[in-house]
Design brief:
The structure holds two protein chains of two kinds. By secondary structure, chain A is an alpha+beta fold. Chain A has helices at about 15-25, 45-50, 70-80, 90-115, 120-145, 160-165, 170-180, 190-200, 200-205, 210-225; strands spanning about 5-10, 30-35, 55-60, 65. Chain B has a four-stranded mixed beta sheet with strand order 2-1-3-4, with helices on one face. Classes of the chains: A alpha+beta, B alpha+beta. Chain B: GO terms for molecular function: glutathione transferase activity.
Protein backbone atom coordinates (compact mmCIF):
# COMPACT_ATOMS: atom_id res chain seq x y z
CA UNK A 1 0.00 0.00 0.00
CA UNK A 2 1.42 3.43 -0.92
CA UNK A 3 2.72 5.41 2.06
CA UNK A 4 0.56 8.38 1.09
CA UNK A 5 -2.50 6.16 1.52
CA UNK A 6 -2.03 6.13 5.31
CA UNK A 7 -1.39 9.29 7.29
CA UNK A 8 -1.39 9.87 11.01
CA UNK A 9 -1.98 13.36 12.36
CA UNK A 10 -0.41 13.55 15.78
CA UNK A 11 2.34 14.64 18.13
CA UNK A 12 5.23 12.39 19.17
CA UNK A 13 4.70 13.09 22.87
CA UNK A 14 1.02 12.17 23.08
CA UNK A 15 0.31 8.75 24.61
CA UNK A 16 -2.87 8.57 22.55
CA UNK A 17 -0.88 9.11 19.36
CA UNK A 18 1.67 6.54 20.55
CA UNK A 19 -1.15 3.98 20.68
CA UNK A 20 -1.86 4.51 16.99
CA UNK A 21 1.85 4.45 16.13
CA UNK A 22 2.38 1.14 17.94
CA UNK A 23 -0.59 -0.41 16.13
CA UNK A 24 0.80 0.74 12.78
CA UNK A 25 4.21 -0.71 13.68
CA UNK A 26 2.71 -4.02 14.84
CA UNK A 27 1.15 -4.44 11.41
CA UNK A 28 4.22 -3.07 9.57
CA UNK A 29 2.09 -0.43 7.85
CA UNK A 30 3.89 2.36 6.01
CA UNK A 31 2.51 5.74 6.94
CA UNK A 32 3.22 9.43 6.76
CA UNK A 33 3.37 11.16 10.14
CA UNK A 34 1.97 14.67 10.17
CA UNK A 35 3.34 16.36 13.29
CA UNK A 36 1.09 18.97 14.84
CA UNK A 37 2.75 22.06 16.34
CA UNK A 38 2.30 22.37 20.09
CA UNK A 39 -0.21 25.11 20.88
CA UNK A 40 -1.88 25.27 17.47
CA UNK A 41 -4.09 23.03 15.33
CA UNK A 42 -3.59 22.53 11.62
CA UNK A 43 -6.35 23.06 9.09
CA UNK A 44 -6.17 19.37 8.20
CA UNK A 45 -6.73 18.37 11.83
CA UNK A 46 -9.71 20.70 12.21
CA UNK A 47 -11.18 19.39 8.95
CA UNK A 48 -10.54 15.74 9.82
CA UNK A 49 -11.81 15.90 13.40
CA UNK A 50 -14.26 18.80 13.51
CA UNK A 51 -16.10 17.39 16.55
CA UNK A 52 -13.22 17.07 19.00
CA UNK A 53 -10.36 18.82 17.15
CA UNK A 54 -7.95 16.36 18.77
CA UNK A 55 -5.11 14.06 17.82
CA UNK A 56 -4.58 11.32 16.83
CA UNK A 57 -6.46 11.16 13.56
CA UNK A 58 -5.72 8.35 11.14
CA UNK A 59 -6.37 9.18 7.51
CA UNK A 60 -6.73 6.10 5.34
CA UNK A 61 -7.46 6.62 1.66
CA UNK A 62 -8.60 10.15 2.56
CA UNK A 63 -11.07 8.92 5.20
CA UNK A 64 -10.51 10.16 8.77
CA UNK A 65 -10.74 7.90 11.81
CA UNK A 66 -10.67 9.56 15.23
CA UNK A 67 -10.19 8.44 18.86
CA UNK A 68 -7.06 6.41 19.64
CA UNK A 69 -8.74 3.16 20.68
CA UNK A 70 -11.12 3.32 17.71
CA UNK A 71 -8.08 3.82 15.45
CA UNK A 72 -6.34 0.77 16.98
CA UNK A 73 -9.45 -1.37 16.38
CA UNK A 74 -9.76 -0.03 12.83
CA UNK A 75 -6.14 -0.89 12.08
CA UNK A 76 -6.65 -4.39 13.49
CA UNK A 77 -9.77 -4.95 11.39
CA UNK A 78 -8.40 -3.62 8.10
CA UNK A 79 -4.87 -5.06 8.05
CA UNK A 80 -5.66 -8.69 8.70
CA UNK A 81 -2.39 -10.14 7.40
CA UNK A 82 -0.33 -8.83 10.31
CA UNK A 83 -0.35 -10.09 13.92
CA UNK A 84 -3.75 -9.63 15.60
CA UNK A 85 -4.13 -6.88 18.17
CA UNK A 86 -7.49 -7.61 19.79
CA UNK A 87 -7.96 -11.02 21.43
CA UNK A 88 -9.87 -13.52 19.27
CA UNK A 89 -12.26 -14.66 22.02
CA UNK A 90 -15.25 -12.30 22.54
CA UNK A 91 -15.03 -12.53 26.33
CA UNK A 92 -11.31 -11.71 26.31
CA UNK A 93 -12.08 -8.80 23.98
CA UNK A 94 -14.72 -7.55 26.42
CA UNK A 95 -12.22 -7.69 29.30
CA UNK A 96 -9.60 -5.86 27.22
CA UNK A 97 -12.14 -3.18 26.24
CA UNK A 98 -13.34 -2.85 29.85
CA UNK A 99 -9.84 -2.13 31.13
CA UNK A 100 -8.98 0.17 28.22
CA UNK A 101 -12.11 2.21 29.04
CA UNK A 102 -11.12 2.21 32.73
CA UNK A 103 -7.67 3.54 31.82
CA UNK A 104 -9.12 6.39 29.75
CA UNK A 105 -12.09 7.30 31.94
CA UNK A 106 -10.82 6.75 35.50
CA UNK A 107 -7.04 6.43 35.52
CA UNK A 108 -5.80 8.92 32.92
CA UNK A 109 -7.48 11.95 34.61
CA UNK A 110 -5.35 11.19 37.69
CA UNK A 111 -2.15 11.05 35.63
CA UNK A 112 -2.81 14.27 33.74
CA UNK A 113 -3.87 15.94 37.01
CA UNK A 114 -0.43 15.27 38.45
CA UNK A 115 1.49 16.14 35.28
CA UNK A 116 -0.23 19.53 34.96
CA UNK A 117 1.39 20.41 38.29
CA UNK A 118 -1.55 22.40 39.64
CA UNK A 119 -2.42 20.03 42.50
CA UNK A 120 -1.11 20.55 46.00
CA UNK A 121 -1.31 19.06 49.49
CA UNK A 122 -4.17 16.69 50.24
CA UNK A 123 -5.72 16.99 46.79
CA UNK A 124 -2.43 15.90 45.22
CA UNK A 125 -2.04 13.03 47.68
CA UNK A 126 -5.55 11.77 46.90
CA UNK A 127 -4.93 11.80 43.16
CA UNK A 128 -1.58 10.02 43.58
CA UNK A 129 -3.29 7.37 45.69
CA UNK A 130 -6.04 6.94 43.11
CA UNK A 131 -3.51 6.56 40.33
CA UNK A 132 -1.54 3.97 42.32
CA UNK A 133 -4.70 2.08 43.26
CA UNK A 134 -5.64 1.96 39.59
CA UNK A 135 -2.32 0.38 38.74
CA UNK A 136 -2.86 -2.25 41.42
CA UNK A 137 -6.18 -3.11 39.75
CA UNK A 138 -4.37 -3.32 36.42
CA UNK A 139 -1.77 -5.61 38.03
CA UNK A 140 -4.62 -7.96 38.99
CA UNK A 141 -6.04 -7.67 35.48
CA UNK A 142 -2.62 -8.54 34.08
CA UNK A 143 -2.45 -11.70 36.19
CA UNK A 144 -5.81 -12.82 34.78
CA UNK A 145 -5.35 -11.74 31.16
CA UNK A 146 -1.75 -12.84 30.62
CA UNK A 147 -2.39 -16.43 31.75
CA UNK A 148 1.21 -16.69 32.85
CA UNK A 149 2.62 -15.21 29.64
CA UNK A 150 4.43 -11.92 29.14
CA UNK A 151 1.70 -9.52 28.01
CA UNK A 152 -1.92 -8.62 28.67
CA UNK A 153 -2.42 -10.07 25.20
CA UNK A 154 -0.65 -13.31 26.15
CA UNK A 155 2.34 -14.26 23.97
CA UNK A 156 2.52 -10.91 22.20
CA UNK A 157 1.43 -7.34 22.73
CA UNK A 158 -2.26 -6.74 22.25
CA UNK A 159 -4.97 -4.12 22.67
CA UNK A 160 -4.68 -3.68 26.41
CA UNK A 161 -0.88 -3.68 26.32
CA UNK A 162 -1.07 -0.82 23.82
CA UNK A 163 -3.81 0.99 25.78
CA UNK A 164 -1.72 1.07 28.97
CA UNK A 165 1.80 0.78 27.60
CA UNK A 166 1.49 4.02 25.65
CA UNK A 167 1.54 5.80 29.02
CA UNK A 168 4.79 4.24 30.31
CA UNK A 169 6.95 7.22 29.36
CA UNK A 170 4.54 9.59 31.08
CA UNK A 171 4.31 7.28 34.10
CA UNK A 172 8.10 7.64 34.42
CA UNK A 173 7.82 11.43 34.19
CA UNK A 174 5.15 11.38 36.92
CA UNK A 175 7.26 9.13 39.15
CA UNK A 176 10.13 11.63 38.88
CA UNK A 177 7.77 14.51 39.67
CA UNK A 178 6.29 12.94 42.80
CA UNK A 179 9.48 11.22 43.93
CA UNK A 180 8.04 7.72 44.16
CA UNK A 181 7.47 4.72 41.94
CA UNK A 182 3.89 3.79 41.06
CA UNK A 183 4.93 0.69 39.13
CA UNK A 184 7.17 -1.12 41.61
CA UNK A 185 8.18 -4.58 42.85
CA UNK A 186 6.21 -4.24 46.07
CA UNK A 187 2.77 -3.34 44.70
CA UNK A 188 2.84 -4.23 41.01
CA UNK A 189 5.56 -6.83 40.42
CA UNK A 190 4.06 -8.24 37.22
CA UNK A 191 3.74 -4.79 35.69
CA UNK A 192 7.44 -4.10 36.38
CA UNK A 193 8.48 -6.99 34.13
CA UNK A 194 5.73 -6.21 31.64
CA UNK A 195 6.83 -2.56 31.33
CA UNK A 196 10.40 -3.58 30.45
CA UNK A 197 9.21 -6.17 27.94
CA UNK A 198 6.75 -3.75 26.37
CA UNK A 199 9.26 -0.94 25.91
CA UNK A 200 11.79 -3.35 24.40
CA UNK A 201 9.31 -4.64 21.82
CA UNK A 202 10.26 -3.80 18.25
CA UNK A 203 6.88 -2.15 17.58
CA UNK A 204 7.30 0.11 20.61
CA UNK A 205 11.02 1.00 20.81
CA UNK A 206 11.02 3.46 17.91
CA UNK A 207 7.92 5.36 18.95
CA UNK A 208 8.32 5.58 22.73
CA UNK A 209 9.82 9.01 23.45
CA UNK A 210 12.78 9.54 25.80
CA UNK A 211 11.91 10.60 29.34
CA UNK A 212 14.05 13.77 29.12
CA UNK A 213 12.12 14.93 26.07
CA UNK A 214 8.78 14.20 27.77
CA UNK A 215 9.92 16.16 30.82
CA UNK A 216 10.45 19.20 28.58
CA UNK A 217 6.90 18.78 27.26
CA UNK A 218 5.64 18.49 30.86
CA UNK A 219 7.15 21.91 31.57
CA UNK A 220 5.30 23.36 28.58
CA UNK A 221 2.02 21.81 29.78
CA UNK A 222 2.54 23.22 33.26
CA UNK A 223 3.27 26.68 31.87
CA UNK A 224 0.25 26.59 29.60
CA UNK A 225 -2.41 25.84 32.23
CA UNK B 1 -26.76 -21.99 24.81
CA UNK B 2 -25.18 -20.92 28.04
CA UNK B 3 -27.31 -18.98 30.48
CA UNK B 4 -27.55 -15.21 30.05
CA UNK B 5 -28.35 -12.96 33.03
CA UNK B 6 -28.72 -9.21 33.05
CA UNK B 7 -28.40 -7.18 36.24
CA UNK B 8 -30.17 -3.90 35.62
CA UNK B 9 -32.32 -1.17 37.10
CA UNK B 10 -35.62 -0.06 35.55
CA UNK B 11 -34.95 3.70 35.66
CA UNK B 12 -31.59 3.36 33.90
CA UNK B 13 -31.12 4.05 30.17
CA UNK B 14 -27.81 2.13 30.38
CA UNK B 15 -29.74 -0.93 31.49
CA UNK B 16 -32.16 -0.49 28.58
CA UNK B 17 -29.34 -0.33 26.04
CA UNK B 18 -28.54 -3.93 26.91
CA UNK B 19 -32.20 -5.04 27.03
CA UNK B 20 -32.72 -3.60 23.54
CA UNK B 21 -29.65 -5.36 22.17
CA UNK B 22 -30.68 -8.71 23.66
CA UNK B 23 -34.25 -8.36 22.40
CA UNK B 24 -33.22 -7.15 18.92
CA UNK B 25 -31.17 -10.32 18.59
CA UNK B 26 -33.81 -12.56 20.14
CA UNK B 27 -31.52 -13.74 22.96
CA UNK B 28 -33.34 -15.24 25.94
CA UNK B 29 -32.09 -13.97 29.28
CA UNK B 30 -32.95 -13.76 32.95
CA UNK B 31 -33.38 -10.23 34.24
CA UNK B 32 -32.35 -9.35 37.78
CA UNK B 33 -33.65 -6.00 39.05
CA UNK B 34 -31.13 -4.27 41.32
CA UNK B 35 -32.14 -1.84 44.05
CA UNK B 36 -29.46 0.82 43.52
CA UNK B 37 -29.83 2.04 47.10
CA UNK B 38 -29.08 -1.48 48.33
CA UNK B 39 -26.87 -3.25 45.83
CA UNK B 40 -26.76 -7.03 45.96
CA UNK B 41 -23.66 -8.91 47.04
CA UNK B 42 -23.75 -10.65 43.68
CA UNK B 43 -23.60 -7.36 41.75
CA UNK B 44 -20.67 -6.17 43.86
CA UNK B 45 -18.95 -9.48 43.18
CA UNK B 46 -19.57 -9.26 39.44
CA UNK B 47 -18.57 -5.59 39.12
CA UNK B 48 -16.14 -4.83 41.93
CA UNK B 49 -14.42 -2.01 40.03
CA UNK B 50 -17.45 0.21 39.35
CA UNK B 51 -20.20 -1.48 41.43
CA UNK B 52 -22.72 -0.45 38.79
CA UNK B 53 -25.40 -1.86 36.54
CA UNK B 54 -25.76 -3.06 33.86
CA UNK B 55 -23.76 -6.25 34.20
CA UNK B 56 -24.24 -9.10 31.75
CA UNK B 57 -23.35 -12.57 32.96
CA UNK B 58 -22.92 -15.19 30.25
CA UNK B 59 -22.19 -18.74 31.30
CA UNK B 60 -21.17 -17.40 34.71
CA UNK B 61 -18.71 -14.84 33.29
CA UNK B 62 -19.51 -11.17 34.04
CA UNK B 63 -19.13 -8.22 31.68
CA UNK B 64 -19.59 -4.64 32.88
CA UNK B 65 -19.94 -1.25 31.11
CA UNK B 66 -22.83 -1.01 28.67
CA UNK B 67 -20.77 -0.21 25.56
CA UNK B 68 -18.46 -3.15 26.28
CA UNK B 69 -21.52 -5.35 26.84
CA UNK B 70 -23.15 -4.22 23.57
CA UNK B 71 -20.06 -5.08 21.54
CA UNK B 72 -19.77 -8.44 23.33
CA UNK B 73 -23.40 -9.21 22.50
CA UNK B 74 -22.85 -8.21 18.87
CA UNK B 75 -19.74 -10.38 18.53
CA UNK B 76 -21.22 -13.40 20.31
CA UNK B 77 -24.64 -13.36 18.58
CA UNK B 78 -24.09 -12.02 15.06
CA UNK B 79 -27.75 -12.01 13.91
CA UNK B 80 -29.26 -8.53 13.42
CA UNK B 81 -25.84 -6.89 13.69
CA UNK B 82 -25.40 -3.69 15.68
CA UNK B 83 -22.30 -2.67 13.77
CA UNK B 84 -21.87 -2.36 9.98
CA UNK B 85 -19.55 -4.70 8.06
CA UNK B 86 -17.37 -1.97 6.59
CA UNK B 87 -14.44 -1.08 8.88
CA UNK B 88 -14.67 2.66 8.25
CA UNK B 89 -18.42 2.71 8.91
CA UNK B 90 -17.77 0.70 12.07
CA UNK B 91 -15.25 3.29 13.22
CA UNK B 92 -17.87 6.03 12.74
CA UNK B 93 -20.50 4.02 14.65
CA UNK B 94 -18.03 3.50 17.51
CA UNK B 95 -17.11 7.20 17.39
CA UNK B 96 -20.73 8.28 17.88
CA UNK B 97 -21.40 5.63 20.51
CA UNK B 98 -18.41 6.97 22.45
CA UNK B 99 -19.62 10.54 21.92
CA UNK B 100 -23.03 9.61 23.34
CA UNK B 101 -21.34 7.89 26.27
CA UNK B 102 -18.96 10.75 27.07
CA UNK B 103 -21.29 13.69 26.47
CA UNK B 104 -24.61 12.19 27.59
CA UNK B 105 -23.77 13.05 31.19
CA UNK B 106 -24.41 16.75 30.49
CA UNK B 107 -28.14 16.01 30.31
CA UNK B 108 -27.99 14.26 33.68
CA UNK B 109 -26.09 17.26 35.02
CA UNK B 110 -29.15 19.42 34.19
CA UNK B 111 -31.20 16.96 36.24
CA UNK B 112 -28.85 16.91 39.22
CA UNK B 113 -28.16 20.63 39.59
CA UNK B 114 -29.71 24.06 39.87
CA UNK B 115 -28.69 27.68 39.41
CA UNK B 116 -25.44 28.49 37.67
CA UNK B 117 -24.30 24.89 37.47
CA UNK B 118 -27.52 23.96 35.73
CA UNK B 119 -27.17 26.88 33.29
CA UNK B 120 -23.75 25.57 32.34
CA UNK B 121 -25.08 22.03 31.92
CA UNK B 122 -27.90 23.28 29.69
CA UNK B 123 -25.47 25.17 27.49
CA UNK B 124 -23.24 22.09 27.16
CA UNK B 125 -26.23 19.85 26.45
CA UNK B 126 -27.46 22.14 23.69
CA UNK B 127 -24.01 22.11 22.10
CA UNK B 128 -23.94 18.34 22.28
CA UNK B 129 -27.42 18.02 20.78
CA UNK B 130 -26.50 20.48 18.04
CA UNK B 131 -23.45 18.38 17.16
CA UNK B 132 -25.61 15.28 16.89
CA UNK B 133 -28.18 17.14 14.77
CA UNK B 134 -25.62 18.57 12.38
CA UNK B 135 -23.01 15.84 12.15
CA UNK B 136 -24.20 12.48 13.35
CA UNK B 137 -27.47 11.76 11.61
CA UNK B 138 -26.82 13.21 8.18
CA UNK B 139 -29.81 12.30 6.01
CA UNK B 140 -30.20 8.87 7.59
CA UNK B 141 -33.22 7.50 9.40
CA UNK B 142 -31.07 6.06 12.16
CA UNK B 143 -27.48 6.61 13.30
CA UNK B 144 -26.89 3.08 12.05
CA UNK B 145 -28.38 3.83 8.61
CA UNK B 146 -31.66 2.13 7.62
CA UNK B 147 -31.73 0.10 10.81
CA UNK B 148 -30.72 0.84 14.39
CA UNK B 149 -27.23 0.08 15.51
CA UNK B 150 -24.77 0.61 18.33
CA UNK B 151 -24.96 4.41 18.19
CA UNK B 152 -28.79 4.44 18.22
CA UNK B 153 -28.91 2.27 21.34
CA UNK B 154 -26.31 4.48 23.01
CA UNK B 155 -28.31 7.63 22.18
CA UNK B 156 -31.48 5.87 23.35
CA UNK B 157 -31.63 7.98 26.52
CA UNK B 158 -32.61 10.93 24.33
CA UNK B 159 -35.73 9.09 23.18
CA UNK B 160 -37.43 9.04 26.59
CA UNK B 161 -35.27 10.14 29.52
CA UNK B 162 -34.45 13.55 28.01
CA UNK B 163 -38.15 14.41 27.68
CA UNK B 164 -38.83 13.38 31.27
CA UNK B 165 -35.92 15.48 32.54
CA UNK B 166 -37.17 18.43 30.47
CA UNK B 167 -40.61 18.11 32.12
CA UNK B 168 -39.21 17.84 35.63
CA UNK B 169 -36.82 20.76 35.27
CA UNK B 170 -39.24 22.85 33.18
CA UNK B 171 -37.11 23.44 30.09
CA UNK B 172 -37.42 22.45 26.46
CA UNK B 173 -34.09 21.66 24.87
CA UNK B 174 -35.21 19.70 21.84
CA UNK B 175 -37.97 21.09 19.63
CA UNK B 176 -38.95 20.15 16.07
CA UNK B 177 -38.02 23.53 14.59
CA UNK B 178 -34.55 23.59 16.17
CA UNK B 179 -33.77 19.89 16.00
CA UNK B 180 -35.81 18.46 13.11
CA UNK B 181 -33.53 15.47 12.43
CA UNK B 182 -33.22 14.52 16.10
CA UNK B 183 -36.99 14.80 16.61
CA UNK B 184 -37.61 12.59 13.58
CA UNK B 185 -35.09 10.09 14.95
CA UNK B 186 -36.81 10.04 18.36
CA UNK B 187 -40.14 9.19 16.70
CA UNK B 188 -38.63 6.53 14.42
CA UNK B 189 -36.63 4.97 17.23
CA UNK B 190 -39.62 4.68 19.54
CA UNK B 191 -41.66 3.06 16.75
CA UNK B 192 -39.31 0.09 16.49
CA UNK B 193 -41.31 -2.76 18.10
CA UNK B 194 -38.48 -3.91 20.41
CA UNK B 195 -37.93 -0.35 21.63
CA UNK B 196 -41.65 0.47 21.89
CA UNK B 197 -42.28 -2.64 23.99
CA UNK B 198 -39.21 -2.11 26.15
CA UNK B 199 -39.30 1.34 27.68
CA UNK B 200 -40.04 2.23 31.30
CA UNK B 201 -43.47 3.65 32.00
CA UNK B 202 -43.13 7.40 31.44
CA UNK B 203 -45.33 8.41 34.38
CA UNK B 204 -43.54 6.03 36.72
CA UNK B 205 -40.17 7.37 35.52
CA UNK B 206 -41.32 10.98 35.94
CA UNK B 207 -42.43 10.36 39.54
CA UNK B 208 -39.26 8.44 40.37
CA UNK B 209 -36.86 11.00 38.85
CA UNK B 210 -38.75 13.97 40.29
CA UNK B 211 -38.40 12.46 43.75
CA UNK B 212 -34.69 11.74 43.11
CA UNK B 213 -34.09 15.34 42.06
CA UNK B 214 -35.76 16.65 45.19
CA UNK B 215 -33.49 14.50 47.33
CA UNK B 216 -30.40 15.53 45.38
CA UNK B 217 -31.13 19.25 45.62
CA UNK B 218 -31.98 18.99 49.31
CA UNK B 219 -28.70 17.32 50.29
CA UNK B 220 -25.72 19.57 51.10
Amino acid sequence: MATSDVKLIGAWASPFVIRALIALKVKSISYEFLQETFGSKSKLLLQSNPIHKKIPVLIHADKPICESLIIVQYIDEVWTSGPTILPSDPYDRAIARFWAAYIDDKWFPCLIGIVRGQLEGEAKETVIQQMSAGLVLLEEAFEKCSEGKGYFGGEKIGYLDIALGSFLGWINVTENMIGMKVIDEAKTPCLVGWAERFCADSAVKEVMPEIEKLEEVAKLLQANV
Amino acid sequence: MEEVKLFGAWPSPFSYRVIWALKLKGIPYEYVEEDLSNKSALLLQYNPVHKKIPVLVHGGKPIAESLVILQYIDETWPQNPLLPKDAFERSKARFWAKFAEDKGSTIWAIFRTGGEEQEKAMKESLEMLKTIEEHALGGKKFFGGDTTGLADLTFGGIALWLGVIEDIVGVKLVEPHTFPRLCAWIENFKEIPVIKQNLPDREKLFVYLKHRREILLASP
